Amino acid sequence: DRQTLVAVLQFLRRSNLRESEEILRREARLLGDDLGGSVSTVASSSSGVAAVPAVPPGKGGVRAGAAGSLPGAKGRPLPARNVETAGGSCGVVVEDQPDVSAVLSAYNQQGDPALYEEYYSGLKHFIECSLDCHRAELSQLFYPLFVHMYLELVYNQHESEAKSFFERFHGDQECYYQDDLRVLSSLTKKEHMKGNETMLDFRTSKFVLRISRDSYQLLKRHLQEKQNNQIWNIVQEHLYIDIFDGMPRSKQQIDAMVGSLAGEAKREANKAKVFFGLLKEPEFDVPLDDEDEEGENEEGKPKKKKPKKDSVGSKSKKQDPNAPPQNRIPLPELKDSDKLDKVMNMKEAARRVRLGPECLPSICFYTFLNAYQGLTAVDITDDSSMIVGGFADSTVRVWSVTPKKLRSVKTAADLSLIDKESDDVLERIMDEKTASELKILYGHSGPVYGTSFSPDRNYLLSCSEDGTVRLWSLQTFTCLVGYKGHNYPVWDTQFSPYGYYFVSGGHDRVARLWATDHYQPLRIFAGHLADVTCTRFHPNSNYIATGSADRTIRLWDVLNGNCVRIFTGHKGPIHSVAFSPNGRFLATGATDGRVLLWDIGHGLMVGELKGHTDTIYALRFSRDGEILASGSMDNTVRLWDAVKAFEDLETDDFTTATGHINLPENSQDLLLGTYMTKSTPVVHLHFTRRNLLLAAGAYSSQ
User: Fold this and answer.
1) Are 581 and 689 in contact (CB under 8 A)?
2) Confidence of residue 287 (pLDDT cuts 50, 70, 90)
3) Cα-atom radius of gyration of the chain, to the nearest Å?
4) Considering the entire predicted model, what is its pTM?
5) How far apart are CA 646 and CA 598, in angstroms?
6) Is residue 617 within 8 Å of 577, Cβ to Cβ?
7) Among candidates 438, 544, 546, which has minimal Cα distance to 501?
8) Do 18 and 150 belong to one domain?
9) Are 520 and 642 members of one domain?
């Protein structure tokens, strides 16, 4: 995109960043010094100008640039890679937007404004009269063409023509574009376009359509016969047509996949290999004892015993063929307390209830009553001993849900008096005077939108509208660090299943990977076209899934920051994401009330669960992955048969190659139960280690 490139070079020159300008020039093979008008010589090489992607405008701040290296938990640095920008990876650090005018000026190529309606209705007539098999595919053109033609009219100040064009054709667009059209209808003057990020994104990122070769040839022939250059130019300039060989797709198949801000994902986007298998559990001996279980206190310190050898600790001797190498990213070493916790976990697992259609879990619902502070986030520890609420009044409140009260560590002076060698030193350091069921943590200066307990229950993360993520100690109930990287509200945060790393996502459309002991992010995942609304770690901690208001879900590789999967199909912003325990599948829920199921290895949608009537805020698989629970604003918890949903999937090579997905219409067969609350929207779900389902939400009186 030459204009953008020139804009960037001009900006670098104005800012006296000569070195960067030179580097960029060399990268892009732009020689000659004439920046004023056109760039004089462009060396025609294979990379051409495409070597430098457009940095999306409307998103100031440092977007590209090397990510630095991930400091290993064991001190081994990960290699520094470039962070992916919306266009690919790019080494230029651009502090500010490129000239917006340069990006918009592509709209200058002028047709006769009076003929726009004729062009569009001519194409519409052609598509509606084409054969059924092509009609569904070609209908995908309506929306992107409508938007670009409208913006072109507005940009060239033909306001009345733009208005009549909008009024005449906006009713023909698919219902799931209503929200976008509302934004569009408010852009009626050239000046409005400069500040509108959504429309600038629409301008800079090509809208992706997936069309069979036959349908494409048909379209091309029609436009060339009609000499309809205006539309052909837009198709060439602003659309990316992903052509596949084979049968055209049906209306249902297309409807399942479209609906995001930038169309579908290119098929290339989901081709990279993903190591979705689980890491091997470390092996250690488990002391076997049943009679003495009551004697253990809750810290999980077994009484002194001769450990007998037991095979539970070494369940998985074989390496999962789809698992990443054990040392692909540095993970923290297990501490003794972690090993004890794993032992407790295994004991609990031995008593776990096997769930299934015949054996549904009991559900225990924690209702927040009189939550006038406005409950905005909930999390529950893995061992289900504590629950945390984030509130709109900027407080974080932690409750103990076992009889054991929350206690802080004693002051330094008192600690110095303790005998460090005694067996119960961990008990002695706690201050009984501080024991209470509830602790309130103050520090944020805006509503708290996300909370997450660390796996070892020593730390708690919270993220807020104030743009920070805070790390709290659950030993002292004080704030240890405030991580400042996002300049706008942070919508979600989550600890890695192994601790140490955590992820956050926010209004600045970027997800960031952090380590607790670094105050700068280790990775920046850029590529979404709207807010990153939810973030989740894959069970093996090598990948992160982010759901966004651009109606797509992306899977990112923690090692190098690359985007390895883009899933489209939701018709509204995504608000919940959950990985299946075996790491193979992903479930996502959005404002459209649908739960979509994805096969990560093949990069395909494999199911759709319909039933909810409002936004889905919570999704969770049971501990063995037999049941998927979903919680929604419609005040219900629904249980779905996950085993049946994922069995005998047809993922043959053809489907993978063309994306012809055939979704079974069996949501109702998969629905195992619907449970109503008393006007309490469900914001969080959690399966205990024994497969009891815990749910949480705040009672709303209206």
Assistant:
1) no
2) low
3) 28
4) 0.79
5) 9
6) no
7) 544
8) no
9) yes
Same domain, 425 and 559: yes
Q: Using alpha carbons only, what angle is made at residue 531 by residues 459 and 208, rounded to the nearest 5 degrees?
A: 130
Q: What is the structure's pLDDT at 588?
A: 96
Check residue 192 and give its pLDDT: 78
The closest of 474, 468, 462 to 434, measured between CA atoms, is 474
Between CA 199 and CA 188 the distance in angstroms is 12
320 vs 501: CA distance, rounded Å = 23
pLDDT of residue 77: 44
- Cα separation, 389 vs 290, whole angstroms: 35
Find the mean pLDDT for residues 558-587.
94
> Do residues 257 and 264 make contact, with C-beta atoms less than 8 angstroms apart?
yes
> Cα dihedral sign for 675, 437, 377, 584?
negative
pLDDT value for 463: 96
* CA atoms 684, 694, 396, 427: torsion sign: negative
Q: What is the DSSP string of 233-282?
A: HHHHHHEEEEEESSPPPPHHHHHHH--STTBS--GGGG-S----SPPPPP
pLDDT band at 84 (very low <50, low <70, confident <90, very high): very low
CATH number at residue 154: 1.25.40.500
65 token code pair: 């640039």
Other CB atoms within a 10 A radius of the CB of residue 580 amount to: 22
Are both 22 and 119 inside the same structural domain? no
CA-to-CA distance for 522 and 400, rounded, in angstroms?
33
Please report whether residue 336 resides in a domain: no
> Looking at the structure, do residues 390 and 245 belong to the same domain, yes or no?
no
Span 224-237, average pLDDT: 79
User: Which of 212, 128, 120 minimizes the C-alpha distance to 167?
Assistant: 120
Assess if residue 153 is contained within a domain.
yes
Q: The domain containing residue 195 runs over which residues?
A: 113-264
- Which among 508, 520, 449, 513 has a CA at the least distance from the CA of 483? 520
Q: Cα–Cα distance between 29 and 9 in angstroms, integer?
A: 13
Cβ contacts of 212 within 8 Å, gap of 6 or more: 137, 243, 244, 245, 246, 247, 248, 249
Name the average pLDDT for the chain.
Answer: 80
Q: What b-and-e string marks burial along 465-487, b requiring 16 or more CB atoms within 10 Å of the CB?
A: bbbbbbbbbbeebebebebebbe
Helix-then-strand count for the chain, H and E: 19, 35
How many domains does the chain divide into? 3
Question: Which residues, including other chains, have CB under 8 Å from residue 507's CB and lie 6 or more apart?
Answer: 486, 488, 489, 490, 491, 531
Write out the H or E segment, with its range, that includes residue 616: strand 616-621
Residue 282 domain flag: no
Write out the E strands in 147-200. Answer: none
Pair (258, 384) in one structural domain: no
Lowest mean pLDDT among 18-27, 44-53, 449-458, 558-567: 44-53
* pLDDT, position 378: 95
In a domain, 345, yes or no: no
pLDDT at 558 over 60: yes
Do 258 and 160 have their domain in common?
A: yes
Kindly state whether residues 519 and 623 are assigned to the same domain. Answer: yes
First and final C-alpha spacing in the chain: 53
| Cα-based angle 483, 489, 495 (whole degrees, multiple of 5) | 50
Which pLDDT score, from 0 to 100, does residue 104 have?
56
In degrees, rounded to 5, the angle at the alpha carbon of residue 521 between the alpha carbons of residues 517 and 525 is 145
E-strand spans in 153-238?
Answer: 207-212
Instruction: Say yes or no to pLDDT of 277 above 50.
Output: yes
Q: Which residues pair with 359 in a beta bridge?
A: 356
Identify the bridge partners of residue 675 per DSSP, sorted by sequence position. 637
Beta bridge partners of 506: 490
